[in-house]
Structure formats: C-alpha cells, structure tokens
Request: fold
Amino acid sequence: MFSNVRDRLYKFRRLQAEPDQQHKLQTEFLDEATPNLTYLTLVIGSCIIATLGLLSNSVAVIIGAMIIAPLMLPIRALAFSALTANIQLLRQSLIALSVGTLLAVGIAYSLGLVSGLSSFGSEILSRTKPTLLDLGIAIAAGGISGYAKLQPKISASLAGTAIAVALMPPICVVGLGVSHANWSLSLGATLLYLTNLLGIILACMIAFLITGCSPLERVRKPLMITLVLTGLLVVPLSVSFVRLIRQSRLEASLESVLLNRTVTFQRLELVNIDTNWLTNPPEVRLNVQATDPITPKQVRLLEAFLKRETGQQFRLIFQVGKITEVRADSNTNPQP
Reply:
C-alpha cells in the first residue's frame, strides 16, 4: 500500500505536459496577456457598466459587467508564467493587469465625480467588507478557471466563474471611494480585490501544476511566495469574518428583543430591518406599518432598552407606513 502511494507521488513529481502543448499554451497566454485595443475596449466597457450598475444599485447590470471579465485573462497568464519561469509572459501579464486596473480605477473615479451622488447603495457597501468566505470563493473559482483553460470542453463555465469571483466591481468601488474621499470604502474594496487576485493566482497555479504544466521541483518557490502573500490576507479577512458572525448574532438578538420584549412592537407590523454597520453607532432602519404614529420619546426608550439588553448602542430609524382598514360598512365615499 505504502509503495503504491510512493509510486503515485513519484509520478506526480515527474508529471509534465508535452512540449507541443507547452508551446501552444505559452502562445495562447501571450495573446491573452497582451494589452491591445481589444483588451482595453473590454476593460473600459466592463468598468463603465460595473460603475453605473453600482451607482444605480442594480444587481443585474453589475452581473453583466462581471461576465465580460477581461482581467481574468492576464491573471491566469500571470499564474502560468510564474510556474514556467517565462519572464516575457510574466512581464507582459503584469503590464496588462496594471494597465487594466489603473484604467478602471480612473474611469470609476471620473464617473463618481460626474454622478454627484452624496451616498452609496448596498451594492457598493457590500464590497468593502471581505471575509474568509470571499477568499474561499476566489480560490474555488480560480481553480475552475485554470482547469477550464486546459480543458476546452468545459470552457463554458468561465462565465460562471467570472461572476463568482467578481474582479471588476471592487476596482470600481476603489475609484468611487477615492472620488468621494471615502478612504475606508476604498481600502475595503482594495482588500477584496487583492483577495480575489491572489486567490485566483494561487488556485490557477495549483490547477496548472496538477495537470502537468510544470514539474513540482520548479514551482516550489513561486508557489510558496503566493502562499505567503495569500496568508498575509488571512489576518484581516479573519477579523472581518469574526465581525460578520458577531454582527449576524447581534442582528438576530436585536430583532428578537424588539419583537418579543417591547410593548411598542406589539402595535406594529415589522416589514423589513436593515443594519448599517459602517456608522458609529450602527444605524438600524426599521420599515414598519402602524395605525398610530411613533414618537421620538418611544425611539429614545427603545434605544436605551436595546443597549441594556444587547450591550451595543444602536441608532433606530423608523420608516412608518400607515395601516388603513377598509370594510364594507366603512363610511367612505367611493369615486365613480
């Protein structure tokens, strides 16, 4: 049994693609990593669509920008060049990736200034708090993307992986944050972009290694460097993940306390609750329906009660829709 495992490991260490296949892959990756007019057009188009979708808070428009996914090509080429020690391809991939990224940030910055919006919607804010979950998604999607490059039969999956890993939207959020001098927004989006970038590179390298694009002995150094860089992101991503869990539990506790332990909500119908954790204290918007108005005094009492019960200060904002009962015997004058 042990000898069988040892033989398999030995074969894996000696695994390498055919020279013709290697040459074909290098040619294809060089073409994909060239910052030509086609590549720049795709970057510009994808960035404009993504930025306008973010500003309008439209999920469908943002997904449309994700499908174009021009930055995925030089990233895969970068992973392949690191494995095969192809300096020309490495240099060209870095240039294409840098040009595409800076161009997208500049376009998003300009559109952010022109739009004149004073606040951002949920689609922008959701891309400023990456966690370990985002790294897991990037690694999974990057692995499929790298494998699909070597297996043309499953190339149709590239659109799905491009949507899953979402490279362009966080870059656009960086530019939008800079346009409003919102540095925390830009830093959060930059962390998400780096998470996606390193996750894809690491997964593509592993996929190329497993399929024999380079022997194991030659890839140890670039693979270790990528692992170390990805590991550096684990610390802030872990902090964000722990914060996400805490916020989720606080939101559940908040809703339970409001609905089950307050007199005010016995007279209200809660339609929706949304918490903005980027403010201090966190703002809780409560969309409710009521027959009677809610007074500022009730809101202050509720805020004090929540602080005692949850140990967290919240700012409550009620959005009240009036409930009107209409029956057959109601004294109303219907319009003809």
Remarks:
- The CA atoms of residues 282 and 314 lie 5 Å apart.
- The first helix runs from residue 2 to 13.
- The longest strand covers residues 268-276.
